[in-house]
Design a protein that fits this description.
alpha+beta, single chain
Length: about 120
């Protein structure tokens, strides 16, 4: 028995429809996994004054797979970088100060975490 046009269209649209990724809980779990896998890494540029006499965070950055973004701690300057290591070239320091690129340990409990 031949199909009419609406049956053909229905069949084609059903074939084109993406498959559901499960219930809300499963879908949310997949989203969390995707974000975790693709999340940029946080870093800081810390300026050491003297020889281990004092230090201060001069800037914060985020590193993506193929680039980085940096903002000074006071928010006045923003930089797009090819790599996080380039951040050390953009902060003015005196001859008695040493910049350090620091990757924080983010596995510690986050006090801002609002999960139940």
């Amino acid at each position: 028995m031949p199909m009419n046009q609406s049956e053909v269209d229905k069949t084609a649209s059903e074939l084109d429809a993406p498959e559901s990724l499960g219930d809300d809980e499963n879908f949310n779990s997949l989203l969390v996994e995707m974000v975790t896998d693709q999340a940029p890494r946080v870093f800081a540029v810390v300026i050491e004054h003297g020889h281990r006499e004092d230090a201060a965070i001069a800037a914060w950055g985020i590193a993506f797979e193929d680039s980085a973004y940096l903002v000074t701690a006071n928010g006045n300057n923003h930089y797009s970088l090819a790599a996080p290591e380039n951040a050390l070239n953009y902060l003015r320091i005196n001859p008695h100060a040493t910049p350090h690129l620091i990757w924080p340990n983010l596995t510690a409990a986050n006090p801002l975490d609002t999960q139940n």
